[in-house]
Amino acid sequence: MTVLNRLYASGGSEVLIETLQIALGSNVYALTRGWDDITATTESGEQVTFIACGIDIALPARNSDGTQDLKFAISNVSGEVSGAIRAALDNLQNATLTYRLYLSTSLNAPATRPYTLGIKTGVWTATDVQITAGYMNVLDLAWPRYRYTLAAFPGLRYL
Q: CB within 10 Å: which end of the chain, N or C, has fewer?
């Protein structure tokens, strides 16, 4: 039995550490939930210091409805990350999020496979920023993708 399976089943002295690495163009923010900063190694072998902050994460549901969205909220106390996210919401092509789960006893690699998702939408208030990130929603895509409509092809009206 792996340490992670034992921890999920019956607990133990280890603690699960959730981290988010938010890439907004050339700016990268590394955050973790809690009060203590941690330095951990990513799956590529890079050492990253995750800054502690008030953060809440809701993982994607494991179901077959076609939408796999990760939702998270960041405290807007300092305004640094939330300001950058607010600016990036206007240009979502370069905004990605990587979720990693570490064990407190082993920060040399993520305990599970990381999720890398594109940032879809977000809202912000004076106290927090709430972001939704996810994979491409295949169920909401039309087939064929390119549709022959009257707006693009007015001659279709006379067929």
A: C
Entry pTM: 0.76
Count CB neighbours of 85 within 10 A: 22
- pLDDT surpassing 70 at residue 34: yes
CA-only gyration radius of the chain, Å: 20
Chain centroid to CA 90:
17
Q: How far apart are CA 69 and CA 72, in angstroms?
A: 10
Considering only CA atoms, which of 46, 54, 45 is closest in space to residue 18? 54
d(CA 85, CA 94): 11
Cβ count within 10 A of residue 32: 23
The secondary structure of residue 93, as a DSSP letter, is: G
Strand partners, 73: 56, 130
Beta-bridge partners for 57? 72
pLDDT tens digits for range 45-61: 999 999 998 888 888 77
Cβ-contact 78, 131 below 8 angstroms? no
Structural tokens at position 50:
């995750």
Cα–Cα dist 30/11, whole Å: 27
